[in-house]
Every structure is written in structure tokens, then in C-alpha cells.
């Protein structure tokens, strides 16, 4: 299963952050997106590049990862409907420290950093929407950070299953185990003992 997001899906998704935003503001944003497709295994962004566009995931699954001493570490999954990006690189237009790689053939709608800033000047509701999205991202990162430090591997697995169970069918389990900081053998035991 590889779900594809529609413009209506994105309106619903974006309204989760800013329920009062009007259709005209959302249409202003969505009308600016240009299509982009990449194949499984290709990089959307590589370390050292500046992320010049924000990507709205239409289909496929992607990961954010970084290499440390020859070992890949997975930090984020992207899938429809969501935004794919490296906040530090995109927001400050600085070279990325991480990579975004497609785990499956993927399609996106993209908007440039410059055009997004222009839309913020044109539309206060859009600027407010993105502020609320950044706030939600920050809270989510803090929550995950605490989980990685305070929860057992079983509790981390269970929280992930509650939030993102569909990824077990879309993503090779080695990437989920890596993301959760769980040894692959222990991950397999937890997965096989779970009643789906």
C-alpha cells in the first residue's frame, strides 16, 4: 500500500494545525506547488546541500538519516500527507547536515523558500499556519527526545505502533528498529509478539 495525497487531503492535514484557516489562503499555497518525482534510493537532499524547496509528500516514504563513523542513523520518516524537509537547512538556508532518501518511488509538490516567504507577506493566515506547524514540530521533537531517554525498548515500540502502525507495512523493519534505537533481534521479537 502506497497512499497518495490529494489537495483535499492537504487541506485537511493543514487545518489540523490551524483549523480556522480559509480556503483561499490554502489554495494560494497549494496552487504554487510544482511537481517532483524521485525513484527509490535517490536522495531528495544530501548533506552539504542547502534545502531550497519545501516538499509536500504526495506519495512514497522517505527517511531523514545521517552517517556517523560509517553507521547510518534514521531520525525521521516522511509520508503522505506531510511535509518533507530539514528544518535547520530550509529555515536558515544553510547546508544540510543530514540526508533525505526515498525508501520507495516518491512524488512531491514543491515550493521554494523565496516564494514561501513572499506568500507569508501576502497572507497572514499562511504565516500563522506555518508558525503553528513549527510549534507542533518542536513539541513533537521534545516528546520523542524524552521517549528515547525515559522509555524501555518495549514502551518505545508500543508508542511508535500507536502513532504510526501503518509504517510497519511500508518501511523495511531495519529502518524502524534503527529509528527506535532497538537491536534488530529485539525488534523482531517485539514485532512478532504484538497482536495486529
DSSP strand count: 8
Distance between the termini: 17 Å
Q: Percent of residues in helical segments?
A: 40-55%
What is the helix/strand order?
A: HHEEEEEEHEEHHHHH
Q: How large is the radius of gyration?
A: 17 Å
- What is the count of helical runs? 8
**Mean residue pLDDT:** 94
CATH topology of the domain at 7-122: Jelly Rolls
Give the biggest beta sheet.
4 strands, antiparallel
SS-derived structural category: alpha+beta
Q: CATH superfamily of the domain at 7-122, please?
A: Jelly Rolls
Low-confidence stretches: none
Structure description:
With 196 residues, the protein is an alpha+beta fold. It has a domain of 116 residues: Jelly Rolls, CATH 2.60.120.10. 46% of the residues lie in helices and 23% in strands. The protein contains 8 helices and 8 strands, in the order ααββββββαββααααα. The strands form 2 sheets. It has a 4-stranded antiparallel sheet. Strands 2-7-4-5 form a 4-stranded antiparallel sheet. β4 and β5 form a beta hairpin. α4 packs across α5. The longest helix is centred in the last third of the chain and has 27 residues. It starts with 6 loop residues before the first helix and ends with a helix. The model has no long low-confidence stretch (mean pLDDT 94). This is Cyclic nucleotide-binding domain-containing protein. InterPro entries: cNMP-bd_dom, cNMP-bd_dom_sf, RmlC-like_jellyroll. Pfam families: cNMP_binding.
Amino acid at each position: 500500500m502506497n497512499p497518495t495525497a490529494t489537495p483535499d487531503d492537504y487541506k485537511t492535514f493543514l487545518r489540523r494545525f490551524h483549523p480556522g484557516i480559509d480556503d483561499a489562503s490554502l489554495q494560494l499555497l497549494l496552487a504554487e506547488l510544482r511537481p517532483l518525482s524521485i525513484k527509490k534510493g535517490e536522495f531528495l537532499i544530501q548533506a552539504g546541500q542547502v534545502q531550497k524547496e519545501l516538499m509536500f509528500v504526495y506519495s512514497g516514504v522517505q527517511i531523514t538519516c545521517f552517517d556517523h563513523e560509517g553507521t547510518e542513523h534514521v531520525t525521521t520518516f516522511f509520508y503522505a500527507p506531510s511535509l518533507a524537509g530539514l528544518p535547520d537547512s530550509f529555515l536558515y538556508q544553510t547546508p544540510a547536515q543530514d540526508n533525505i532518501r526515498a525508501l520507495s518511488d516518491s512524488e512531491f509538490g514543491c515550493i521554494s523558500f523565496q516564494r514561501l516567504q513572499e506568500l507569508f507577506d501576502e497572507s497572514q493566515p499562511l504565516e500563522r499556519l506555518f508558525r503553528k506547524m513549527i510549534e507542533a514540530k518542536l513539541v513533537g521533537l521534545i516528546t520523542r527526545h524524552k521517549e528515547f531517554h525515559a522509555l524501555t525498548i518495549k514502551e518505545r515500540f508500543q508508542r511508535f505502533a500507536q502513532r504510526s502502525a501503518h509504517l510497519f507495512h511500508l518501511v523495511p523493519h531495519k529502518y524502524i528498529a534503527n529509528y527506535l534505537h532497538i537491536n534488530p533481534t529485539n525488534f523482531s521479537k517485539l514485532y512478532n509478539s504484538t497482536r495486529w
